[in-house]
Amino acid sequence: MLSPADHASAAVAVVGLGYVGLPTALALLAAGNEVIGIDVSEARLDAIRLGAVDLLPSDHERLATAGERFTLAADPAAIAGARTVLICVPTPVDRHLVPELEALSSACAAVVAHAVPGQLLVLTSTTYVGTTRDLLVEPLNARGLRVGTDVFVAFSPERIDPGNAQHAQDRTPRVVGGTGEFASLLAAAVLERTAPSAHILPSPEDAEMTKLWENTFRAVNIALANEFAEDCNGLGLDPLPIIEAAATKPYGFMPFYPGPGVGGHCIPCDPHYLLWQLRALRISSPLIDTAMTAIASRPRKVVRRARELLADRGRSTSGARVLVVGVAYKPGVADVRESPALEILEELAEEGAKVHFTDPLVPSLRLGAELLSSVAVPEAESWDLILVHTMHPGVDLSWLADRTAVLDATYRLNSVPAKAVV
């Protein structure tokens, strides 16, 4: 059996090469590991080979210089060549806000089927409490691989902030919960090659709940920030300077900011894994439930405000030319997963508006059966309403200064005197 230090420097397989798996693989490459990247999507593997993926500049450099130490494969049997296997697959919710576990279950089943003695298996996907035991520990034991003796298992939630170089992996501690002390030490040794430290918890369940708490905390406070912004609007106040003033207090306050809604596969999804599990146990969590309901309804409030602004100008929503500025779910990324912009565009279109969008990072998106392309020169056209959804770094929006029909759902558009907010 290898020591934690020797184990950590051996080859690592990363199952799932999305916004978590690919940066994780590149961080391990930078640390000196050989990495086997596995993804069921051949299109994703081809995009990685071409470098046509959404990454921070530093990660693009790592990918360009990876060479033969980075092997790509679609067959999960390739994990047999690794000492450590990291499972990094998405855990979304469906349109009814119920966890979709198919991708996670399939990935874990494939890893269990191809695991070999001596390996460390680490689940990183955000999910319900008990997943690591349900999908890895019990199936491994059933297969005849004794967890804690033949193979080792841990949970360590991902902490990647896409598009944000200030929150790079090497600046963010990892949380680790193993199925025993040695499993925790192995996982910590591997992950500390990509992070400043590892905080060890007694069990996978503790680590799973830690991740749910992190994102539930954010969700509740974002819902509160949105509500506070509406309160300020009713009192004729701008919420941003008030929030920033409150943030000068060095204790007891953490700033959260209002916006058009919440996107990505973290905040709008993760707390529902907790609520789903609690409901099955007949445990109520009314504050979290209310916050998630508020988050889900936020895009509809943006649409309602857009409708009001059009009506104030004597325009019906039907037939109105509406431009949405920025459709990515957050600044600096090309990711539209769960983006509030999609629901906003869809609802406006259903009300008869002629919807368009402009986003330098998103060339096109599908709205129902229609494929919309980003408007290249939006300032050259006339719009009945311009709705600012995402402000990407470095994008010049000074052309909005003389427009009189602007809905700023970001609350950060200081250059437009006549703007309205939600």
Total beta-strand segments: 14
Helix content: 25-40%
Based on the structure given, which CATH architecture of the largest domain is correct?
3-Layer(aba) Sandwich
Q: What's the N-to-C terminus distance? A: 60 Å
The run of helices and strands is HEHEHHEEHEHEEHEHHHHEHEEEEE
- Number of DSSP helices? 12
CATH superfamily of the largest domain: NAD(P)-binding Rossmann-like Domain
Low-confidence spans: pLDDT under 50, at least 5 residues?
Answer: none
What average pLDDT do the residues reach? 95
Domain UDP-glucose/GDP-mannose dehydrogenase C-terminal: 323-415
Family: Belongs to the UDP-glucose/GDP-mannose dehydrogenase family.
Organism: Actinacidiphila oryziradicis
Protein name: Nucleotide sugar dehydrogenase
Short description, anyone?
It comes from Actinacidiphila oryziradicis. The chain is an alpha/beta fold and 422 residues long.
List keywords for this structure.
single chain; 422 residues; alpha/beta; Rossmann fold; eight-stranded mixed beta sheet; four-stranded parallel beta sheet; 12 helices; 14 strands; 37% helix; globular
